[in-house]
Amino acid sequence: MPDTAQQPRNRTVLAVAAAVVVVALAVVLAVWLTRDSGDDDGSVAVPSAQPPSATSTPGDGVTAQAQGDVLPSPMSGQDAVDALGDQLERVAELNGMSADELRDLLLRDASVQVTPSGRLMYDDRMTPPPTSQ
Predict the structure, then answer these.
(1) pLDDT (mean) for 104-125
(2) Mind listing the pLDDT tens digit for each residue in 55-83?
(3) pTM exceeds 0.85
(4) How far apart are CA 120 and CA 101, in angstroms?
(5) Cβ distance 102 to 95 under 8 Å?
(6) How far is residue 93's CA from residue 95's CA, in Å, rounded to a whole number?
(7) Are 70 and 117 in contact, with CB atoms under 8 Å apart?
(8) Four-point Cα dihedral 129, 41, 44, 82, nearest 10
């Protein structure tokens, strides 16, 4: 008789163990499918309508402004605001902000630059630590 009374308990333990294994596998699978590659800096790259091609005349060493570019070279601060002119709103929209927010950011943070294609980038300069002698 003790064997027949033990069978329902063994089945229950086995069922609970199987459920735990299934849940553990589901968690591992979910983590694996949603894992971050580790190189995400929070920005989202959106392809432009035109390829980022610069044209140059062979041998002259001068790169012309690519078609669709808003600036001839990266710019920051008041220079960028002035150079963008009427395109400031379009560039702001491209970067997910209002024209006022973009203007304020450019005037407040000297490391923010507008690339020729209109995207924002940060130009951070690292200063080497002083050497003790």
Answers:
(1) 92
(2) 444 444 334 445 578 999 999 999 999 99
(3) no
(4) 13
(5) yes
(6) 5
(7) yes
(8) -20
**Residue 80 near residue 106 (C-beta atoms within 8 A):** yes
Q: 3-state secondary structure string, the chain?
A: CHHHHHHHHHHHHHHHHHHHHHHHHHHHHHHHHHCCCCCCCCCCCCCCCCCCCCEECCCCCCEECCCCCCCCCCEEHHHHHHHHHHHHHHHHHHCCCCHHHHHHHHHHCCCEEECCCCCEEECCCCCCCCCCC
Q: Which residue is associated with the tokens 């070279």?
A: 73
Q: pLDDT tens digits, residue range 14-39?
A: 899 999 999 998 888 888 887 765 55
**Residue found under tokens 């041998």:** 59
Distance CA 74, CA 90 (A): 16
Tokens of 87: 């395109």
Amino acid, single-letter form, for residue 64: A
Which tokens is 96 given? 């997910």
Sequence-separated (6 or more) residues with CB below 8 Å from residue 88: 81, 99, 102, 103
